[in-house]
Design a protein that fits this description.
The protein is about 45% helix and about 15% strand. It contains 25 helices and 22 strands. The structure holds phosphoenolpyruvate and magnesium ion.
Length: about 750
Amino acid sequence: MTMSEAAVGGHRQALRRLRTVMAGGGTAQQRLDEIVEVVAAEMAAEVCSVYVARAGELLELFATKGLNPEAVHRTRLRVGEGLVGAVAAQARPLNQTDAQSHPQFSYRPETGEDIYRTFLGVPILRGGRVRGVLVIQNREARRYGEEEVEALELIGVVIAELIAGDALISPVEAISSQGNAILPVRLEGVGICPGLAMGEAVLHMPRVSIPQMFADDAEQEHGRLRDALRSMHGELDDMLASSGFKRPGEHRDILLAHRRFAEDRGWLRRIGEAIDGGLTAEAAVQKVLDDTRARMQQILDPYFGERLADLEALAFRLLHHLTGRRPGARPDVPPESMVLVARTVGPAELLDYDAQRLKALILEEGSATSHVAVVARALGVPVVGRIQGLLARIDQTDPVIVDGDNGQVFVRPGDDVRLTVSNHMAMREKRRAEYAATRGLPACTRDGVRISLNMNAGLLLDLQALEDSGAEGIGLFRTEIPFMVQAEFPGVAPQTELYRRVLRAAGGRPVIFRTLDIGGDKQLPYFRESMDQNPAMGWRSIRVALDRPTLMRQQLRALIAAAAGAGLNVMFPMVAEISEFDAARRILEMEIARARARGRDIPDSVRVGVMIEVPSLMWQLPALLRRVDFVSVGSNDLFQFLFASDRGNPRVAERYDVLSPGSLSLLKQLVAECDDYGVPISLCGEMAGRPIEAMALIAVGFRNISAPAGTIGAVRKMVRSLHAQTLARFVDSLLDLPDHSLRGRLRDFSRDRGTVLDDP
Ligand code: PEP
Ligand code: MG
């Protein structure tokens, strides 16, 4: 028997005794008190203490053998404070022979620990989150060996279960001896989709419940692990061979990464060691995942972030093979109102959740323009992203409030926050009811100017909102969105069917289909051929369409077939020069000719438009306007290029204001030129949906705008309370000012003139 085997054997004995303690009766606190006794005895330590993490980033001494018992529930350290705090902050063991000379040693007189020189602390981990710290100490200077560190980590797994599973700390932390009420957590992130919602946390990849933590027969557990790995490999191979994953693409890459990971020797060795230490196979997989997660989270490198996501998905899969339960991210009975919590989630996965119950989404990653954000917006779901350490601070079933407007999340909110938010939500509900009641009224200003209000859409799901919002039509149908939520390129037939359904749902109201705008922030999972340094300005949109004409031809073929016998409106995005528009139009004409030659029905009329999103078009307007049937300003892109300010980067996205004299002058000039050429102009960027910005658009001459459906009620209300001529004169007088923004002056105008600017 080797040294390490002997040590493992000894620790097995400790685990066995712990198991008896765990199986015994008594309160969680009593069991914790027994655990520290057992561990101190089995590890030949004079001190064994358990610190439990409490809200507010505190570690409280919950049980001790050896330190002053009076210190229990009194001694509290901040995460990062002292050696115990350092273990929690770094989620790593700390093995110190001369504890008091460590720069982070923090002396607490109430504990009487000044006489102990040797310190070994390990984090108590669960779900990648530090739940506490387990410490052993000795008087004499000695060094704990590797095996002791490992054994203590295994014991930490047991304590983690006790902390998570029992009433050691209630979700609201009612047991604090000081009577401190806890301490809801407010997390800050970036508001990705606006709105307010309340619900119960549902983890996108929840913990798999592990029925049994310990096993006596390690050989049997190794065998179970081997069987589960074999069946998981089989599943991965079957998936790779299935049609959905045959093409190259990200989905396939992910599966291949899982397949490779599944054979990673380091990973398998660590699981094997945990089994040797006395855990069941599933507890071992979970422990290795928790350790890795806690360590990797310290590294702010996107590469490691992705590897961690792969490892999590793989461990999740393996656990399902071990426990014999099919993967299913949903709880058995999802709550009526759920807040989905994820590191990251794909658009298709989001659509898998019941849209009626899904109230909000919160993410560790994510950006405003990511695809999942686009889908969430279509679902009307508030989203907050980029919340650091989110998964470490939230548990399944925690009550959560998501404030997408201000990029904040309240976990386990107190009554005051709950009440304030409920009031806000009720107010919004009232407004929504008011908008619904006025949706049939014309969007006409007080001085008789008619404004055409249209909505943006991208999913069939959006189309219901056409009725609800009272929009006149769909001013922008983003055709890439259905592509983004698929596993592979849809062929002509499914596309035709989709466009037909869109037209049917529109019921004769005009729909403007924008051809594929992929690339940039809108990557398709199965189409990632370029690794642009600067994707927004890279190989995207019309550039892809012209370089890969088959894609666009198929799409146009589907649009022509879908609109047969009716009117078809097609619009090309991201055009930077006239030749691109001409080339795209030629493809459209070829497809019409092809359909005609085959005796197919074709649309009664075809109107072809262009999006103005690249500033270069501003200097080609006369030639452009002679060719197009309509234009639509993509202000999201136009202004990011105009100001050289990335729309997806929160540090700069709001640095420049679309209500600056410069931007409004540009828009005014554009409208004037279109009027000269008799070309209808609209604007379909997000600004059209913000009442104050829509008001400015009317001032510079826009009579047609297209906005997210949820904003149309507020915009209609603004229009109906506006005197357009007076505002136009006022704005004209401001366009030469050197101001950063005219927002304040426009707000003053609205206040003085009674123009209603609700928050949409
Ligand atoms: C825009 O750029 O303003 C626009 C409407 O297109 P998208 O947001 O889809 O890029
Ligand atoms: Mg755009």
